[in-house]
Amino acid sequence: MLSSLPASVPDLLRLLAVPVFAWVAVLDVRTRRVPSAVWIPLGALGAALLAWDGWVAYTADLHAWQSFLIPTAFSVGFVVPLAYLFWWFGGFGGADAKALLVLALLFPVTPSYAVGDWMFPLVGGDQLLPFSLAILGNGVLVGLAIPVALGLRNALAGRLTPIAPLGWPTAVDHVPHRHGKLLQTTDGYTLSGLDLDALRMYLRWRGLTFADLRAEPERLRDPETLPAEPNPPTDGAIDVDPPVADGGTVDADETTASAAATDGDEADVGVSIDGDPKPAADDFDDPWGADAFLDSIEGTAYGTSSEDLRNGLDVLATEDRVWYSPGTPFLVPLFLGLLVALGYGDVLVSLMG
């Protein structure tokens, strides 16, 4: 009865991971956040199928046992620690590392699927390398192709800059609704600008909107304007309630009056209350309160430094269009690498062969 199936039962059950990986890839693009709970059932399924395949191979013959044991030992003993090391050194996000760990359990050995006269994957069915490593290699190749596509897109649009393979220009008003990093500073281009999630954390911490930042940059550079009771910075997600001004409650009348006062006092910009000139931004001990913000929060705000934050705020306060990189979450190339591996096989091994 089992022989009439297009694949073994464990291999068919492994295909359940495909729609899950498609969903988390889309979720990661939209929100940059994947719930950890999604990996638990996939990991449990991988462990159960691993035990199932191991028992079948062990009770078959020596060749079947060796064909199972060698790639499985490599997958669990090498790919799993590799995922952890990539996460430890910052090469992977937490979700990327968990995804690779799950793949190491789910796909240690190359699966086999018969569709008519075709057998998938098309190549590499008898190799002793773990199939999870083939998925990772394919994902890396897909990831390397993305900058090439971005570079061509920008070149066709006439945007020839050193950072053309990494992003594109966008209207500054779109920035609060984007994930990624700025590729621009006050001095030019950069490969590691302000993280946009860190920007949202900072604005919520101060109780500001992006419109506030654009409207009063000179005043807000002064660290004396920091709130006495900052708001929780959240994690920088886009879909979060607006910040509460100055850590207090929002009063519509006060907001209107404040806006009117600001509009009527434009001639006083640059003059302190006692009539003396206000210090220039460069004279502040902590322009924008960047140090105060980073010192007060838990964690590192996605690796953002004080200089990154100040530079990014200066750019966003003055420019109408900015270069930014959306950054492609590695779950997307990893998912595409899984599809390529299931359909074709290990592209790297095929090219080398």
TrEMBL record:
Region (Disordered): 219-285
UniProt KW keywords: Cell membrane, Hydrolase, Membrane, Transmembrane, Transmembrane helix
Main localization, broad class: membrane
Pfam families: Peptidase_A24 (PF01478)
EC number: 3.4.23.43
Record-linked InterPro entries: Preflagellin_Peptidase, Prepilin_IV_endopep_pep
Span of domain Prepilin type IV endopeptidase peptidase: 17-119
Protein origin, superkingdom: Archaea
An example Gene Ontology CC term for this record: plasma membrane
Molecular-function GO terms, alphabetical: aspartic-type endopeptidase activity
Gene3D superfamilies: 1.20.120.1220
Membrane topology (UniProt): Multi-pass membrane protein
Cellular localisation: Cell membrane
PANTHER family: PREFLAGELLIN PEPTIDASE
Name the record gives this protein: Prepilin peptidase
